[in-house]
Every structure is written in C-alpha cells, then in structure tokens.
Amino acid sequence: MKEPRGPRVDAPIDEARQPATGGGDFTASDRYYLAWMEYQDQKESEPSDEQLSAYCAERGLLGRGGKPVSPANLRRHFVRWRVYNVWAEQRVRTEVPAQSDIAQTCADRGITAQYKKPVTPAYIAEESVDFERRWQALTRHHADTQP
After folding, report:
1. Distance between the two ends of the chain, CA-based, in angstroms?
2. In the prediction, which pLDDT does 143 show?
3. Contacts 24+ apart (CB under 8 A), 67-70
4. pLDDT score, position 75
5. What is the pLDDT of residue 74?
6. Using CA atoms, how far apart are residues 31 and 8, in angstroms rounded to an integer?
7. Distance CA 101, CA 108 (A)
8. Which of 101, 99, 85, 68 has its CA nearest to residue 134?
9. Which residue stretches of the chain have pLDDT < 70?
10. What per-residue confidence (pLDDT) applies to 57?
11. pLDDT, position 15
C-alpha cells in the first residue's frame, strides 16, 4: 500500500547552502532528504539506499572525496525522514505537533523504527529539535529560491 504523502517544502537540491532561521544551516542530510523526496515525486516510489545514492550522484550531490554518498549513510536517515514527513504534515497546522499524534499516525501508516519497533513519542521528542530546524531551513530555502 502506498503511503499517503503530506505537505512539504520544495527546494532544489543543487542550490547553494542557505542559512536557516534560528542559526542552523542547510545540512547534507537536508539535501539528501530533498533528493529522496524528488526521487519519489519522479518515480512514485521510495528509493532503496542504492537507488538514492545513484540519484544523488547523477545530480552532483556527492560525499567525501567527490564519490557517491554511501548507501549505508543514506539508509540511516530513512526512518527519520519518514517520521519527519508525518511531523511536517502536522507542523503545517500547529506550531508544536503532538508527539503522541505523530506516533499514532506513524503506526497507522506502518512506519516503524529500527527492527520494526513502533515509533514512540519519546523518539519524536528526541528528534523534534532537528525536525524544527529542518522545517525552518527548508522554509527559508524555499522562500530564498522563489523568483
């Protein structure tokens, strides 16, 4: 079953780094996230870690030494990005999304943490600062790249 996708911020993955509000930078993880989302828009399915590595390389998004980003490096972000998408759907409607609601939505959609364990409110609490940082960075990046 295809997971429903919620609102997100569109931003090109190859734009120059832009500072985010609140002092955070547009990180490599943010760029990989954008490539992951762009791949899904184009192919209508989530990429494997190897597919995403190749996709990033095709677009000039490379890792250390100018080599493709390792699939293992990308794979470690997948759960966080899935949960972030649920968080972002709720962030559109409220400044502080309820962690229990996010955990329940993840469960409803079959989004699990490592070893198929449920995504918990505690996990979301641990990630919420980075989720907000990404939200602000992507929002600012999107605003800065609009004509």
Report:
1. 37
2. 72
3. 69/32
4. 96
5. 96
6. 14
7. 10
8. 85
9. 1-24, 144-147
10. 96
11. 39
Burial (Cβ within 10 Å: 0-12, 13-18, ≥19) of residue 28: middle
Name which of 46, 133, 118 is nearest 87 in CA terms.
Answer: 133
Alpha carbons 88 and 20: distance in angstroms, whole number: 16
Token pair belonging to 109: 């959609």
pTM value is: 0.80
Which residue matches tokens 């998004």? 61
Amino acid at 51: Q
SS3 of the chain: the string is: CCCCCCCCCCCCCCCCCCECHHHCECCHHHHHHHHHHHHHHHHCCCCCHHHHHHHHHHCCCECHHHCECCHHHHHCCHHHHHHHHHHHHHHCCCCCCCHHHHHHHHHHHCCECHHHCECCHHHHHHHHHHHHHHHHHHHHHHHHHCC
Q: What is the largest CA-CA distance in the chain?
A: 44
Please give the pLDDT value at position 26.
83
Residue appearing with tokens 């209508």: 44
Check if the beta carbon of residue 33 is closer than 8 Å to that of residue 81: yes
Question: Quick one: tokens of 70?
Answer: 């390792």
